[in-house]
Amino acid sequence: MSARVAGPDDWPEVAALRHRVFVLEQGVPPELEADAADASAVHALARDDAGTVVAVGRLVERDGRAVVGRMAADRSVRGRGHGAAVLGVLHAEAAGRGFTEVELHAQLTARRFYERAGYEAVGEPYLEAGIEHVTMRRRLV
User: Was domain 3-139 assigned CATH 2.40.10.120?
Assistant: First the structure.
């Protein structure tokens, strides 16, 4: 399974998957799901054998930090490595930009996924878009 940096032509599929997962499945308001950072973010995606985008994520720089976000996997492929492949691309992109650490706001239900990827929780859980999250960080070495 492979993942890669998304190009402009991939954006409709990236946006559609995020909408399905965040807005339709999780009830995140559409105005919170898409934001101005999308324009400058590095987006990554994974496709299934049929060529359908099944996992996505993005990397932004915020206050001098590399921040991973908008990680989403289609329900049909969760637990099959597509999200981990996307995360690997985003880690490589962050390292290539000189960052030595990445941060993300993990939904509590995804905390174990990120721990398996080397992240550690920082601080206590909090609500973001009506969903419990925890800030997590990982060294890039």
Answer: no
